[in-house]
Amino acid sequence: MSSSPPTSAAPSQDLAALREALDARTQEVEALRAEIEETNRGVLALYSELDMQADQLRQATELKSRFLAYMSHEFRTPIVSIQSITRLLIDRVDGPLTPEQEKQVMFVRDTAAEFAEMVNDLLDLARLEAGRVDVSPAWFDMVALFDALRGMFKPVLTNPEVSLIFEEPHGVPKLFNDDRKLSQILRNYISNALKFTPSGEVRVAAHYDDENSITFSVRDTGIGIPPESHGEVFQDFVQIDSPLQRRYRGSGLGLALSKRLAELLGGRVGFESEVGVGSRFYVTVPATLPGTAGMSSGDGHGG
Questions:
Q1: Where are the chain's structural domains?
Q2: Which of 10, 24, 27, 163 is a good FRET partner for 226, with 20 to 30 A between their CA atoms?
Q3: What is the pLDDT of residues 91-100, one digit of tens each?
Q4: Fold adopted by 138-296
Q5: How far apart, in whole angstroms, are the C-alpha atoms of residue 284 and residue 215?
């Protein structure tokens, strides 16, 4: 009885199917590789464009800072001249003034003072954006800081219906931070509070939050800030529209500068406000400037 030879058709068909499947997978992998390479080229092009835009932004910021610094310096000379001349006129060095002349000279003096404040704010902004503001920490206490601020504002308290009150800073330790920049922040707060408080009080206080955090606040009984304007209070060149704002002009930079100065001191700013009730602006700073623990360890907490 004869037997038929074994057939190889089935294994050949299986091998062909495997090769076909492998070829299909290879094509898919190649297509995927090509897609990834195209995506990588797109990402590299995007990074290149972002780097170019970042360079352009840095150049624009540098140009703006240089322009602000240059113009601020150029404006200072005529401002100082105007202030000197008005001082001579008000002191009657060259003879008496009529009531109307005195009124006009006082207007010129006040306008020059506002202009000088704007120029100083612009110069500070230019320095901050250029990274040219140095922090100089030293030991100081609240009593000395509040006494200095009280003396600064005494000559400008011309509204008898507003009281400027400095609370005694009980239990607040000495700070190792930059008192000049902290003073500048508080001066901005107090100045704004006095401008927008027709009657009542402006109250300055300091509170010891914890072992390395102190909050300074300036609370007023002024006109307050509407809720829709809360989000832009600390932005550059922002002024809240109100009749008092139109009367007292400014650069709109004081609060923005305060925010940046607070960040330099390792702190933060904030506020609470209600229309017709008043506002409370605050700055919280570390008792010891970050990164200066070794420098400040020799003095400890004072009274």
A1: 8-133, 138-296
A2: 163
A3: 888 888 898 9
A4: Heat Shock Protein 90 (3.30.565)
A5: 4
